[in-house]
Write a sequence for this structure.
């Protein structure tokens, strides 16, 4: 997963936002297909650049990442 994220970052620098958005959503869809969560939260400063989120994806702030990680590992 980390490797995919790094590759997506390189793609953005070379090809622009439209290609970057497509790759991010492709990775997100793969994650959804494998793990079938109720929803996926994308965070980070660049999430606002994604225009058409699938119905199973929500935007989240970085402040929620730590809390979500703690909840995930405590259950």
């Amino acid at each position: 997963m980390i490797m995919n994220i790094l590759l997506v970052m390189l793609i953005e620098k070379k090809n622009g936002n439209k290609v970057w958005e497509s790759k991010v959503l492709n990775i997100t869809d793969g994650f959804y297909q494998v793990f079938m969560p109720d929803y996926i939260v994308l965070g980070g400063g660049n999430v606002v650049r994604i225009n058409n989120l699938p119905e199973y994806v929500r935007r989240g702030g970085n402040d929620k990442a730590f809390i979500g990680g703690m909840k995930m590992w405590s259950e």
Q: What stands out?
A: The chain is about 60% helix and 10% strand.
